[in-house]
Every structure is written in C-alpha cells, then in structure tokens.
Amino acid sequence: MRKHGVILAILGTLLFCLVLAGCTGKTSAPSGKTVTVFDKSGTRVEVPCPVEKVISVNSGMTALICALGAKDRLVGRDIRSTFPSYTKDIEAVAESSANSNVELMISKKPDLVVADPMFYPQHREKLSAAGIPSYVDSTSDPERGLTLIRNFGLMFDENEKAEELAQFVERYTGVVDQRIKRLELEGGSKPRVYFEWHSPYKTASAETSFHKPIAQAGGINIAAGLPVHTPRVSSEWVVKQNPDVIVNRISGDATLEQMQQKWQEIVSRPGWDKIEAVRNGRVYIIKADVFLTFRYPVGLLYYARWFHPELFQDIDPAAVHQEIIEKLFGPDEWQWLAKHEAFIYPPE
User: What is the pLDDT of residues 172-230, one digit of tens each?
Assistant: First the structure.
C-alpha cells in the first residue's frame, strides 16, 4: 500500500507539472486554461492560452505575431500594419493605437487586443467590460524588447519560436556590447551624436528609449543631460555642440524620396556646414522599423557601423536584416522589401 501511495504521489506531481506547463504556454494548453503576463505599465493581463483570435493595432506587434507563426490568428489590424506584406489582406479596424474603433474591435470577438501606449485607458475599460483583455506595451523600447517577445510566446503558446527570436536579438546585441566594452577598456574615443526625430530640432534625453541604442552602439548623446525628455533645441545649440554624427530617425512609412528630402534639409540648414558631421559626410536617416522587437539588432548595428566603422566593418546590417526576414517569412518577403523599401539613407 505504501508503495502504491508513493506511485500515486509521483503521478500526481507529474500531472500538476503538465498542467502548469500548459498554462505557461510551454506545451499545448488544455481547453479553458489561461496565462498571466504583465505589460509595460505593470498591468496584470490574463488571457486564454493559447490566444486564437487577436487584434493588433501596432505594426511592430503585428510583425511579431506573424514572426511567431500566428498570422492566421489575426482578425484585425491598424492601417500601419503592412509588414509582412500579406497582412494587408487582414481587415483594418483602426488607424493606430491612438485612433481605434473599439466597437468594431468588440464585434470581432477577439481573445485579445494588443496595442502600444498610445491606446487610451478608456479603450481598455470598454474592452474589459466586454470581457476582452488588452495588452499594452512598447515595441520601440529596447528595455522591453526581450520581455515583449517572450510574453507573446507565452500568450500564443509559441515559446520555442519566441526563444529563437530572443536568441537572435541577444546574439547580435551581444556582439555590439562586447566590442564597445573592449573599446572602453582600451580607452578608445566615442563620437558625439545629435539625434533627431519627429520634426526639426526635436531630440531626446537619456530618459527616453531613443537614448539606449545610441549609448549601446558606443555613441555619446549630446542631449542626454537635458532636463526635458524630448526637447526641441535650437539650430544654434546644435552648431555649438558640433556633433561628430547626426542621425534622424524617420517614420516607418517614409518613402525613399522623403528620406532623401530629409537628409538634404538637414545638411542645408544655415550654419550647419561648419558641423563636423556635415563636413565629414556623417549624416544619416534611418527608419524606425529596424528598431522594433526582433529587428532591433539591425538598427543597433547600423548605429555601430556609423559610430565605429573600424570596429564593425566586418558586419553588414543589411545582411543581418535579410537573414532574419528570410528565416521568418521566406526569400520572397525579403525580395519584396528590398524592392519597395529603403531603410537607411544614404545607402551603403
């Protein structure tokens, strides 16, 4: 009897572990199970495990869902979610997280709505009242990238694929970290960087997500110590700071012509011909897309090459970009991107 009791206890423990694994998304979850994650605001979000119907009103999250192999679970998107290219066939239910048709979302009866921090609290309240959980996070914040990937892996019960994405991110960010650390140990110099986004003279302090990749790639953000998170500085201030590199981060839907125009506008500003970055041809335009979730290493590597070309001449960010796109979505998707999109200007 005692032996029989021990066996039953072992079997009971194994059964508990299997159920727990299902709830945490590590195996296919039994019907009716849920998983709990915490979003950027610290909100506790409990969702069915796995999520079978989802609406995404953030382009980075839409791409991440597809990267996890869950494209068929998307029942709605925002109009900016056009990558991968096949997402255009999914019904648009919002212009963006900030401009969403919540009633239309509710009518789709999703298991989950995912959005960025521009999604209004009252939208979350309406969804909650309808019994629909919402997950709000930032795809552009490097500090949230790995957590976001792994949380999506849990919610969609795609942990193995999520871990592959996380390892891809860690592999290339690790290369940058190691080389910059060696530079620091050897007392190497770092370029002073003026970062601009959204509109002329709008920059970012060390308290923003824009600062992290600049510092991680071995640059010195000249606006790091400013008291306002995203201040608008004067042209004279930038000239006086005399940065070695200028980077403008442009919207993901910008055309090549718009990127060229932005570059020309920057180098043509009165007095900027005296700035080292302009004099030495170190003014760059880069799309925000290459910093989102699993593509973060691409943007980081472009920064690293621009800031320290001698340290990163052996790494081609475009080739890294192609590697991950082809692995996740196939060669045709990369060919489409290469034909229709430009991610940096001037081209390398």
Answer: 999 999 999 999 999 999 999 999 999 999 999 999 999 999 999 999 999 999 999 99
- Residue-wise pLDDT for 72-112, tens only, equals 999 999 999 999 999 999 999 999 999 999 999 999 999 99
Same CATH topology for 29-157 and 181-345: the answer is: yes
| Domain ranges, ordered by start, for the chain | 29-157, 181-345
pLDDT in tens, 7-51: 444 444 443 343 344 444 333 344 569 999 999 999 999 999 999
**CA distance between the termini of the chain:** 75
CATH topology (fold) of 29-157: Rossmann fold (3.40.50)
Q: Report the top-level CATH class of 181-345.
A: alpha beta
CB-CB contact of 326 with 333 (8 Å): yes
C-beta of residue 246 within 8 angstroms of C-beta of residue 282: yes
Whole-prediction pTM: 0.89
Closest among 248, 246, 250 to 275, alpha carbons compared:
246
